[in-house]
Amino acid sequence: MTELVRDVVIIGAGATGLTAATTLKKAGASVAVLEARDRVGGRLWTDDIEGAMLEIGGQWVSPDQSALIETLDELGLETFSRYREGESVYVDAAGQRRRFTGDIFPVAPETERIMNELIERLDAMVAEIDPDAPWEHPNAREWDKISWEAWLEQQTDDAEALANIAMFTGAAMLTKPAHAFSLLQSLLMAASAGSFTHLVDADFILDKRVIGGLQQVPIRLAERLGDDLFLEQPVLRLEHGDDGVVAHGRSVTVRAKRAILALAPTLYHRISFEPALPRIPQQMHQHLSMGFVIKVHAVYERPFWRDAGLSGTAFSPFQLVHEAYDNTNHGDERGTLVGFVSDQNADDVFRLSDEERRTSILESLATYYGDEAKHPVVYYESDWGAEEWTRGAYAASFDLGGLQRYGADLRRPIGPIHFACSDMAGAGYQHVDGAIRMGRLVAAQIAEQDAKGAQGPRA
Protein backbone atom coordinates (compact mmCIF):
# COMPACT_ATOMS: atom_id res chain seq x y z
CA MET A 1 0.00 0.00 0.00
CA THR A 2 1.41 3.38 -1.08
CA GLU A 3 0.75 6.19 1.41
CA LEU A 4 0.87 9.82 0.27
CA VAL A 5 0.45 13.21 1.91
CA ARG A 6 -0.97 16.01 -0.24
CA ASP A 7 -2.77 19.34 0.09
CA VAL A 8 -5.71 18.09 -1.96
CA VAL A 9 -6.87 14.66 -3.09
CA ILE A 10 -9.13 14.62 -6.14
CA ILE A 11 -11.40 11.63 -6.68
CA GLY A 12 -12.14 11.23 -10.38
CA ALA A 13 -10.01 11.94 -13.45
CA GLY A 14 -12.65 13.36 -15.76
CA ALA A 15 -12.54 16.88 -17.14
CA THR A 16 -13.61 18.38 -13.79
CA GLY A 17 -11.11 16.54 -11.63
CA LEU A 18 -8.19 17.07 -14.00
CA THR A 19 -9.02 20.77 -14.45
CA ALA A 20 -9.13 21.24 -10.68
CA ALA A 21 -5.95 19.24 -10.16
CA THR A 22 -3.89 21.04 -12.81
CA THR A 23 -5.19 24.44 -11.66
CA LEU A 24 -4.30 23.75 -8.03
CA LYS A 25 -0.92 22.30 -8.94
CA LYS A 26 -0.11 25.37 -11.05
CA ALA A 27 -0.98 27.52 -8.02
CA GLY A 28 1.54 25.63 -5.89
CA ALA A 29 -0.66 23.09 -4.12
CA SER A 30 0.32 19.43 -3.95
CA VAL A 31 -2.31 17.08 -5.37
CA ALA A 32 -3.09 13.43 -6.00
CA VAL A 33 -5.80 12.25 -8.37
CA LEU A 34 -7.36 8.83 -7.78
CA GLU A 35 -9.34 7.37 -10.70
CA ALA A 36 -11.37 4.17 -10.58
CA ARG A 37 -11.04 3.38 -14.29
CA ASP A 38 -7.94 2.30 -16.19
CA ARG A 39 -8.16 5.49 -18.27
CA VAL A 40 -8.79 9.20 -17.80
CA GLY A 41 -11.76 11.10 -19.18
CA GLY A 42 -14.82 9.81 -17.36
CA ARG A 43 -17.70 10.34 -19.80
CA LEU A 44 -15.21 11.41 -22.48
CA TRP A 45 -13.89 8.39 -24.32
CA THR A 46 -12.46 8.17 -27.84
CA ASP A 47 -11.68 4.64 -28.96
CA ASP A 48 -10.81 2.56 -32.02
CA ILE A 49 -13.58 0.07 -32.82
CA GLU A 50 -12.84 -2.32 -35.68
CA GLY A 51 -10.56 0.27 -37.28
CA ALA A 52 -12.97 3.19 -36.85
CA MET A 53 -12.30 6.07 -34.46
CA LEU A 54 -15.49 6.55 -32.48
CA GLU A 55 -16.45 9.11 -29.85
CA ILE A 56 -17.94 6.74 -27.30
CA GLY A 57 -18.83 9.66 -25.02
CA GLY A 58 -19.17 13.44 -25.34
CA GLN A 59 -17.90 15.03 -28.52
CA TRP A 60 -19.44 18.37 -29.56
CA VAL A 61 -18.37 21.96 -29.03
CA SER A 62 -20.85 24.83 -29.28
CA PRO A 63 -20.04 28.56 -29.64
CA ASP A 64 -21.19 29.46 -26.12
CA GLN A 65 -18.90 26.93 -24.44
CA SER A 66 -16.16 29.44 -23.69
CA ALA A 67 -14.45 27.43 -20.95
CA LEU A 68 -14.07 24.43 -23.24
CA ILE A 69 -12.95 26.58 -26.17
CA GLU A 70 -10.32 28.28 -23.99
CA THR A 71 -9.07 24.88 -22.85
CA LEU A 72 -8.88 23.57 -26.41
CA ASP A 73 -6.83 26.61 -27.41
CA GLU A 74 -4.56 26.23 -24.41
CA LEU A 75 -3.97 22.55 -25.18
CA GLY A 76 -3.36 23.20 -28.88
CA LEU A 77 -6.34 21.16 -30.06
CA GLU A 78 -8.06 21.96 -33.35
CA THR A 79 -11.73 21.65 -34.25
CA PHE A 80 -13.71 21.05 -37.43
CA SER A 81 -17.31 21.82 -38.27
CA ARG A 82 -19.97 19.14 -38.25
CA TYR A 83 -21.16 18.36 -41.78
CA ARG A 84 -24.51 20.10 -42.35
CA GLU A 85 -24.77 20.79 -46.07
CA GLY A 86 -28.05 19.76 -47.68
CA GLU A 87 -31.47 19.02 -46.26
CA SER A 88 -32.49 17.52 -42.93
CA VAL A 89 -35.14 14.80 -42.50
CA TYR A 90 -38.21 14.71 -40.28
CA VAL A 91 -40.54 11.73 -39.78
CA ASP A 92 -44.04 12.36 -38.42
CA ALA A 93 -46.30 10.15 -36.30
CA ALA A 94 -47.69 8.45 -39.41
CA GLY A 95 -44.19 7.53 -40.56
CA GLN A 96 -44.20 10.07 -43.40
CA ARG A 97 -40.69 11.27 -44.24
CA ARG A 98 -40.15 14.93 -45.14
CA ARG A 99 -37.04 16.84 -46.12
CA PHE A 100 -36.54 20.36 -44.80
CA THR A 101 -34.09 23.16 -44.05
CA GLY A 102 -33.94 25.44 -41.02
CA ASP A 103 -34.71 24.74 -37.38
CA ILE A 104 -38.47 24.20 -37.36
CA PHE A 105 -39.68 20.81 -38.52
CA PRO A 106 -41.95 20.54 -41.61
CA VAL A 107 -45.24 20.24 -39.76
CA ALA A 108 -48.72 21.61 -40.47
CA PRO A 109 -48.92 25.44 -40.35
CA GLU A 110 -50.99 25.43 -37.14
CA THR A 111 -48.54 23.05 -35.45
CA GLU A 112 -45.65 25.21 -36.58
CA ARG A 113 -47.35 28.30 -35.13
CA ILE A 114 -47.85 26.57 -31.79
CA MET A 115 -44.24 25.35 -31.70
CA ASN A 116 -42.91 28.83 -32.43
CA GLU A 117 -45.14 30.34 -29.75
CA LEU A 118 -44.00 27.76 -27.21
CA ILE A 119 -40.33 28.35 -28.02
CA GLU A 120 -40.83 32.10 -27.67
CA ARG A 121 -42.64 31.66 -24.34
CA LEU A 122 -39.95 29.32 -23.06
CA ASP A 123 -37.18 31.69 -24.14
CA ALA A 124 -38.81 34.41 -22.03
CA MET A 125 -39.01 32.10 -19.01
CA VAL A 126 -35.45 30.88 -19.47
CA ALA A 127 -34.19 34.47 -19.61
CA GLU A 128 -35.35 34.87 -16.00
CA ILE A 129 -33.50 31.77 -14.78
CA ASP A 130 -30.06 31.97 -13.20
CA PRO A 131 -28.51 28.63 -14.23
CA ASP A 132 -26.38 28.68 -11.08
CA ALA A 133 -29.43 29.18 -8.83
CA PRO A 134 -32.70 28.28 -10.60
CA TRP A 135 -34.30 27.60 -7.20
CA GLU A 136 -34.17 31.35 -6.46
CA HIS A 137 -36.76 32.21 -9.12
CA PRO A 138 -40.05 33.38 -7.55
CA ASN A 139 -41.91 30.59 -9.35
CA ALA A 140 -39.34 27.88 -8.62
CA ARG A 141 -41.52 25.90 -6.20
CA GLU A 142 -44.50 25.95 -8.57
CA TRP A 143 -42.39 25.08 -11.62
CA ASP A 144 -40.64 22.24 -9.81
CA LYS A 145 -43.91 20.58 -8.77
CA ILE A 146 -45.24 20.13 -12.32
CA SER A 147 -43.69 17.76 -14.83
CA TRP A 148 -42.36 19.01 -18.14
CA GLU A 149 -44.98 16.93 -19.95
CA ALA A 150 -47.88 18.13 -17.76
CA TRP A 151 -46.92 21.77 -18.26
CA LEU A 152 -46.79 21.33 -22.03
CA GLU A 153 -50.19 19.64 -21.98
CA GLN A 154 -51.55 22.76 -20.27
CA GLN A 155 -50.23 24.89 -23.13
CA THR A 156 -51.52 22.91 -26.12
CA ASP A 157 -53.58 19.93 -27.20
CA ASP A 158 -51.59 19.63 -30.43
CA ALA A 159 -49.97 16.23 -29.92
CA GLU A 160 -47.25 16.72 -32.55
CA ALA A 161 -46.22 20.13 -31.22
CA LEU A 162 -46.12 18.74 -27.70
CA ALA A 163 -44.03 15.70 -28.70
CA ASN A 164 -41.50 17.82 -30.58
CA ILE A 165 -41.05 20.47 -27.89
CA ALA A 166 -40.88 17.83 -25.15
CA MET A 167 -38.11 16.04 -27.05
CA PHE A 168 -35.65 18.93 -26.91
CA THR A 169 -35.06 18.67 -23.16
CA GLY A 170 -36.44 15.16 -22.63
CA ALA A 171 -35.11 12.49 -24.97
CA ALA A 172 -32.46 14.76 -26.47
CA MET A 173 -30.91 16.22 -23.30
CA LEU A 174 -31.98 14.86 -19.92
CA THR A 175 -32.68 11.48 -21.57
CA LYS A 176 -35.68 10.82 -19.34
CA PRO A 177 -39.39 10.63 -20.17
CA ALA A 178 -41.00 14.08 -20.12
CA HIS A 179 -43.23 13.07 -17.20
CA ALA A 180 -40.21 12.18 -15.01
CA PHE A 181 -38.70 15.63 -14.46
CA SER A 182 -40.02 19.09 -13.72
CA LEU A 183 -40.61 22.21 -15.75
CA LEU A 184 -37.92 23.89 -13.62
CA GLN A 185 -35.41 21.17 -14.50
CA SER A 186 -36.23 21.68 -18.18
CA LEU A 187 -35.77 25.44 -17.86
CA LEU A 188 -32.40 24.89 -16.19
CA MET A 189 -31.34 22.67 -19.09
CA ALA A 190 -32.21 25.46 -21.54
CA ALA A 191 -30.71 28.22 -19.36
CA SER A 192 -27.44 26.30 -19.17
CA ALA A 193 -27.22 26.61 -22.98
CA GLY A 194 -28.31 30.27 -23.07
CA SER A 195 -31.88 29.80 -24.34
CA PHE A 196 -34.43 27.23 -25.38
CA THR A 197 -33.82 28.36 -28.96
CA HIS A 198 -30.23 27.13 -28.68
CA LEU A 199 -31.46 23.63 -27.82
CA VAL A 200 -33.70 23.66 -30.89
CA ASP A 201 -30.85 24.79 -33.14
CA ALA A 202 -28.71 21.72 -33.87
CA ASP A 203 -26.28 23.85 -35.89
CA PHE A 204 -25.56 25.82 -32.72
CA ILE A 205 -25.43 23.23 -29.98
CA LEU A 206 -23.73 20.57 -32.15
CA ASP A 207 -21.42 22.94 -33.97
CA LYS A 208 -17.88 21.52 -34.00
CA ARG A 209 -15.83 18.48 -33.08
CA VAL A 210 -12.20 18.08 -32.03
CA ILE A 211 -9.82 16.59 -34.57
CA GLY A 212 -8.67 13.32 -33.04
CA GLY A 213 -11.42 13.22 -30.44
CA LEU A 214 -12.54 15.16 -27.39
CA GLN A 215 -10.92 12.74 -24.94
CA GLN A 216 -7.66 14.46 -25.84
CA VAL A 217 -8.67 17.20 -23.39
CA PRO A 218 -8.40 14.99 -20.28
CA ILE A 219 -5.49 13.06 -21.76
CA ARG A 220 -3.42 16.22 -22.22
CA LEU A 221 -4.43 17.60 -18.83
CA ALA A 222 -3.40 14.31 -17.26
CA GLU A 223 0.05 14.60 -18.83
CA ARG A 224 0.62 17.69 -16.69
CA LEU A 225 0.11 15.69 -13.52
CA GLY A 226 2.77 13.06 -14.14
CA ASP A 227 3.14 10.81 -11.08
CA ASP A 228 0.32 12.59 -9.24
CA LEU A 229 -2.29 10.59 -11.19
CA PHE A 230 -3.22 7.07 -10.09
CA LEU A 231 -5.48 4.88 -12.25
CA GLU A 232 -7.49 1.82 -11.15
CA GLN A 233 -7.84 3.30 -7.69
CA PRO A 234 -11.53 3.37 -6.79
CA VAL A 235 -12.04 5.20 -3.50
CA LEU A 236 -14.46 3.13 -1.46
CA ARG A 237 -13.70 4.72 1.92
CA LEU A 238 -13.18 8.38 2.81
CA GLU A 239 -12.39 9.46 6.35
CA HIS A 240 -12.93 13.14 7.09
CA GLY A 241 -12.74 15.52 10.02
CA ASP A 242 -11.37 18.85 11.22
CA ASP A 243 -7.81 17.75 10.47
CA GLY A 244 -8.52 16.80 6.83
CA VAL A 245 -9.28 13.61 4.94
CA VAL A 246 -7.88 10.17 4.29
CA ALA A 247 -8.89 8.65 0.92
CA HIS A 248 -8.42 4.90 0.64
CA GLY A 249 -7.85 3.63 -2.90
CA ARG A 250 -7.18 0.05 -3.94
CA SER A 251 -3.44 0.31 -3.34
CA VAL A 252 -2.94 4.03 -2.67
CA THR A 253 -3.94 5.94 0.47
CA VAL A 254 -3.84 9.73 0.43
CA ARG A 255 -3.90 11.93 3.52
CA ALA A 256 -4.81 15.50 2.57
CA LYS A 257 -6.18 18.77 3.91
CA ARG A 258 -9.10 18.64 1.47
CA ALA A 259 -10.85 16.32 -0.95
CA ILE A 260 -12.68 17.06 -4.18
CA LEU A 261 -15.30 14.54 -5.26
CA ALA A 262 -15.17 15.04 -9.04
CA LEU A 263 -17.65 12.34 -10.00
CA ALA A 264 -21.39 12.19 -10.54
CA PRO A 265 -23.38 12.50 -7.30
CA THR A 266 -25.21 9.31 -8.21
CA LEU A 267 -21.96 7.45 -7.40
CA TYR A 268 -21.40 8.89 -3.91
CA HIS A 269 -23.14 5.86 -2.40
CA ARG A 270 -20.20 3.76 -3.57
CA ILE A 271 -18.04 5.55 -1.00
CA SER A 272 -18.22 4.76 2.71
CA PHE A 273 -17.93 8.12 4.44
CA GLU A 274 -16.50 8.06 7.96
CA PRO A 275 -18.30 9.70 9.69
CA ALA A 276 -21.45 9.46 7.56
CA LEU A 277 -22.53 12.54 5.62
CA PRO A 278 -25.16 14.78 7.28
CA ARG A 279 -28.84 13.96 6.78
CA ILE A 280 -29.60 16.64 4.13
CA PRO A 281 -26.95 15.42 1.64
CA GLN A 282 -27.97 11.83 2.36
CA GLN A 283 -31.55 12.66 1.38
CA MET A 284 -30.55 14.86 -1.55
CA HIS A 285 -28.49 12.19 -3.25
CA GLN A 286 -31.51 9.86 -3.26
CA HIS A 287 -33.46 12.38 -5.35
CA LEU A 288 -30.90 12.44 -8.18
CA SER A 289 -30.74 9.89 -10.97
CA MET A 290 -29.03 9.40 -14.30
CA GLY A 291 -30.86 9.50 -17.59
CA PHE A 292 -30.31 6.72 -20.11
CA VAL A 293 -29.37 6.94 -23.77
CA ILE A 294 -27.75 4.60 -26.27
CA LYS A 295 -25.39 6.36 -28.64
CA VAL A 296 -25.36 4.37 -31.87
CA HIS A 297 -22.42 4.54 -34.30
CA ALA A 298 -22.84 3.25 -37.85
CA VAL A 299 -19.87 3.50 -40.22
CA TYR A 300 -20.29 3.05 -43.99
CA GLU A 301 -17.89 2.76 -46.91
CA ARG A 302 -18.93 6.27 -47.94
CA PRO A 303 -21.35 8.98 -46.70
CA PHE A 304 -24.07 7.85 -49.11
CA TRP A 305 -26.70 10.27 -47.75
CA ARG A 306 -24.70 13.22 -49.08
CA ASP A 307 -25.18 11.93 -52.62
CA ALA A 308 -28.92 12.35 -52.05
CA GLY A 309 -28.49 15.95 -50.90
CA LEU A 310 -28.95 15.16 -47.21
CA SER A 311 -27.01 16.75 -44.38
CA GLY A 312 -27.36 13.65 -42.23
CA THR A 313 -29.40 15.55 -39.62
CA ALA A 314 -32.65 13.76 -38.77
CA PHE A 315 -35.35 14.08 -36.10
CA SER A 316 -38.52 12.38 -34.96
CA PRO A 317 -40.03 12.01 -31.49
CA PHE A 318 -42.00 9.11 -32.99
CA GLN A 319 -39.00 7.03 -34.07
CA LEU A 320 -36.87 4.63 -32.04
CA VAL A 321 -33.86 6.76 -33.01
CA HIS A 322 -35.18 10.21 -32.13
CA GLU A 323 -32.23 12.14 -33.66
CA ALA A 324 -29.24 11.37 -35.85
CA TYR A 325 -26.35 13.25 -37.47
CA ASP A 326 -23.48 12.96 -39.91
CA ASN A 327 -20.59 12.10 -37.61
CA THR A 328 -17.90 11.49 -40.22
CA ASN A 329 -14.39 12.01 -38.86
CA HIS A 330 -12.14 14.75 -40.15
CA GLY A 331 -10.40 13.62 -43.35
CA ASP A 332 -12.15 10.22 -43.38
CA GLU A 333 -13.37 8.87 -46.74
CA ARG A 334 -15.88 6.66 -44.99
CA GLY A 335 -19.13 8.05 -43.66
CA THR A 336 -20.38 7.77 -40.10
CA LEU A 337 -23.87 8.31 -38.73
CA VAL A 338 -24.53 8.74 -35.03
CA GLY A 339 -28.02 8.22 -33.65
CA PHE A 340 -29.60 8.26 -30.18
CA VAL A 341 -32.14 6.03 -28.46
CA SER A 342 -33.33 7.45 -25.13
CA ASP A 343 -35.24 6.77 -21.91
CA GLN A 344 -38.05 4.19 -22.23
CA ASN A 345 -37.02 3.27 -25.77
CA ALA A 346 -33.51 2.49 -24.53
CA ASP A 347 -34.94 0.28 -21.79
CA ASP A 348 -37.12 -1.55 -24.27
CA VAL A 349 -34.44 -2.36 -26.83
CA PHE A 350 -32.14 -3.78 -24.16
CA ARG A 351 -34.81 -6.36 -23.49
CA LEU A 352 -34.13 -7.64 -27.00
CA SER A 353 -31.27 -9.85 -28.12
CA ASP A 354 -28.19 -8.08 -29.49
CA GLU A 355 -29.14 -8.95 -33.06
CA GLU A 356 -32.79 -7.91 -32.61
CA ARG A 357 -31.70 -4.60 -31.07
CA ARG A 358 -29.25 -3.89 -33.90
CA THR A 359 -31.91 -4.71 -36.51
CA SER A 360 -34.50 -2.45 -34.85
CA ILE A 361 -32.10 0.47 -34.58
CA LEU A 362 -30.83 0.17 -38.16
CA GLU A 363 -34.39 -0.05 -39.44
CA SER A 364 -35.11 3.23 -37.65
CA LEU A 365 -32.06 4.82 -39.29
CA ALA A 366 -33.29 3.49 -42.65
CA THR A 367 -36.54 5.37 -42.13
CA TYR A 368 -34.49 8.55 -42.38
CA TYR A 369 -31.79 7.59 -44.90
CA GLY A 370 -33.09 4.63 -46.92
CA ASP A 371 -32.23 0.93 -46.95
CA GLU A 372 -28.50 1.54 -47.41
CA ALA A 373 -28.41 2.59 -43.75
CA LYS A 374 -29.11 -1.03 -42.78
CA HIS A 375 -25.67 -2.20 -43.92
CA PRO A 376 -22.84 -0.48 -42.00
CA VAL A 377 -19.33 -1.91 -42.08
CA VAL A 378 -18.89 -1.03 -38.39
CA TYR A 379 -21.70 -0.89 -35.86
CA TYR A 380 -21.29 0.01 -32.18
CA GLU A 381 -23.54 0.97 -29.28
CA SER A 382 -22.25 3.22 -26.50
CA ASP A 383 -24.02 1.82 -23.46
CA TRP A 384 -23.11 4.05 -20.52
CA GLY A 385 -25.77 2.42 -18.38
CA ALA A 386 -23.54 -0.64 -18.18
CA GLU A 387 -20.42 1.36 -17.21
CA GLU A 388 -19.68 0.55 -13.57
CA TRP A 389 -18.34 4.03 -12.79
CA THR A 390 -21.03 5.96 -14.69
CA ARG A 391 -24.29 3.97 -14.79
CA GLY A 392 -26.23 6.21 -17.16
CA ALA A 393 -26.03 9.18 -19.51
CA TYR A 394 -25.78 11.95 -20.12
CA ALA A 395 -26.06 13.36 -16.61
CA ALA A 396 -27.82 13.28 -13.27
CA SER A 397 -30.96 15.35 -12.73
CA PHE A 398 -33.49 15.72 -9.92
CA ASP A 399 -36.86 14.08 -9.67
CA LEU A 400 -40.00 16.23 -9.33
CA GLY A 401 -39.51 18.83 -6.60
CA GLY A 402 -35.89 17.91 -5.97
CA LEU A 403 -34.18 20.84 -7.70
CA GLN A 404 -36.01 23.51 -5.70
CA ARG A 405 -35.74 21.46 -2.50
CA TYR A 406 -32.06 20.53 -2.64
CA GLY A 407 -30.37 22.43 -5.47
CA ALA A 408 -28.71 24.99 -3.19
CA ASP A 409 -27.04 22.15 -1.24
CA LEU A 410 -25.58 20.37 -4.27
CA ARG A 411 -22.21 22.16 -4.34
CA ARG A 412 -21.99 23.05 -0.64
CA PRO A 413 -18.78 21.69 0.96
CA ILE A 414 -19.04 19.36 3.94
CA GLY A 415 -16.07 20.12 6.15
CA PRO A 416 -12.95 19.44 4.06
CA ILE A 417 -14.94 17.70 1.27
CA HIS A 418 -15.77 19.68 -1.88
CA PHE A 419 -18.08 18.58 -4.69
CA ALA A 420 -17.76 19.36 -8.41
CA CYS A 421 -18.78 17.82 -11.72
CA SER A 422 -20.72 18.68 -14.87
CA ASP A 423 -23.91 17.37 -13.23
CA MET A 424 -23.94 20.36 -10.88
CA ALA A 425 -22.80 23.05 -13.32
CA GLY A 426 -24.90 26.08 -14.21
CA ALA A 427 -23.67 27.21 -17.62
CA GLY A 428 -22.62 24.11 -19.50
CA TYR A 429 -24.69 21.78 -17.32
CA GLN A 430 -24.02 18.12 -18.29
CA HIS A 431 -21.45 19.18 -20.92
CA VAL A 432 -17.65 19.22 -20.92
CA ASP A 433 -17.79 23.00 -20.75
CA GLY A 434 -19.65 22.75 -17.45
CA ALA A 435 -17.17 20.17 -16.17
CA ILE A 436 -14.27 22.53 -16.84
CA ARG A 437 -16.14 25.45 -15.25
CA MET A 438 -16.76 23.39 -12.12
CA GLY A 439 -13.12 22.32 -11.95
CA ARG A 440 -12.01 25.93 -12.12
CA LEU A 441 -14.62 27.01 -9.58
CA VAL A 442 -13.76 24.45 -6.92
CA ALA A 443 -10.04 25.11 -7.34
CA ALA A 444 -10.66 28.84 -6.87
CA GLN A 445 -12.79 28.20 -3.77
CA ILE A 446 -10.08 26.08 -2.18
CA ALA A 447 -7.40 28.65 -3.00
CA GLU A 448 -9.54 31.41 -1.50
CA GLN A 449 -10.20 29.46 1.69
CA ASP A 450 -6.54 28.61 2.07
CA ALA A 451 -5.62 32.27 1.56
CA LYS A 452 -8.06 33.35 4.27
CA GLY A 453 -6.73 30.65 6.60
CA ALA A 454 -3.15 31.80 6.03
CA GLN A 455 -4.08 35.37 6.98
CA GLY A 456 -5.40 34.22 10.34
CA PRO A 457 -7.96 36.03 12.52
CA ARG A 458 -7.87 39.78 12.72
CA ALA A 459 -6.79 41.38 15.99
Automatic annotation (TrEMBL):
One function term, GO molecular function aspect: oxidoreductase activity
Keywords: Oxidoreductase
Positions contributing to substrate binding: 340
Pfam families: Amino_oxidase
Keyword Ribonucleoprotein: no
Cofactor(s), names only, from the UniProt record: FAD
Record's signal peptide: none
Residue ranges of every copy of the Amine oxidase domain listed in the record: 16-446
Entries under InterPro entries matching the protein: Amino_oxidase, FAD/NAD-bd_sf, Flavin_amine_oxidase, Flavin_MAO
Residue positions binding FAD: 16, 35-36, 235
Family: Belongs to the flavin monoamine oxidase family.
PANTHER family with a match to the protein in the record: AMINE OXIDASE (PTHR43563), AMINE OXIDASE [FLAVIN-CONTAINING] B (PTHR43563:SF1)
Full protein name: FAD-dependent oxidoreductase
Organism: Pseudoclavibacter endophyticus
